[in-house]
Amino acid sequence: EASNRDHHDEDFQFFQETLGLSPDRLLPPILSLDEDTIQARLSQRDQTDYLQRLVEKIQGQSSDVVLMEGPGTLQEGTLLGMSLHTIATALDAAVLLVGHFDIVQTVDRMLFAKEQFGDRLIGVVINDVPAANTDFAQGSLREFLEHHQIPVLGMLPRDVVLRSVSVRELVNQLNAQVLCRPDRLNLMVETMTIGAMNVNSALRYFQNARNQVVVTGGDRTDLQLAALETSTQCLVLTGCLSPNPEILSRAEDLEVPILSVDLDTLTTVEIIDRCFGQVRLHEPVKVDCIQRLMRQHFDLDRLLKLLNL
Description:
Blueprint: H1 2-19, H2 35-42, H3 50-59, H4 84-91, E1 95-100, H5 106-117, E2 121-129, H6 134-147, E3 152-157, E4 165-166, H7 167-174, E5 177-180, E6 188-189, E7 191-195, H8 199-208, E8 212-217, H9 221-228, E9 232-238, H10 245-254, E10 258-260, H11 265-277, H12 284-297, H13 300-306
Parallel strand pairs: 1-2, 2-3, 7-8, 8-9, 9-10
Antiparallel strand pairs: 4-6, 5-10
């Protein structure tokens, strides 16, 4: 879809600027895995050999090392002949697997990957490890994987900054109108609270949340005022209703952006929830965070040694 292609273009520019790469050192994706691409393949309108195109593009590089982001899962891209196993085999490439921590499924996923890739699997990174599971991950899990010749190059702890989303991203995803403080769209939101109950009950929820976005009806002045007195980074008002001038004045003073959306509350909540599930790194605060986590928790020297560099 157009939105997916736009994101690819934004990501491409972001990596180039953040890593300080010249245009000739960064290769754009050869395809976008979106609905149009899938439909064209299923209808056999698209017979492109994407794997061969990728091989030719990579072989045309003169660099000693080429880093490539693989598919999101071991299955993704199979329809197009571009699964991770197929790509790694065709390119004779080493695989560094990044996996989300799951106390039930992590080990099975890593063992399955080892069966698929064999010695091509040079290591794994376990991401988003909750604090409550740190001892298990660093102890039993790491020991088991290393015993099965799966090098654990990093275990990155869960971090609220990486799971957060900017108010600007909410504006884009909700197609929202910014009613005040457009200069504060860089604020980061960590949690979402729905204001749909009486004000006393809502206030307890608001007070327990940190750096929240509060979604409530545009006519709920009582809940809006209550939210503004707590750790609220953004108010999202549904129903395309203008708030009371008192609310706008208070939000201006507190530097809290207010967004108005022409959507019902349920749809609004679903969209925001998806935003939290799509962790994009474009905000500078996230770049700083991931750099810090990698310095503290990723064994770069061991990776270079495994790559014979």
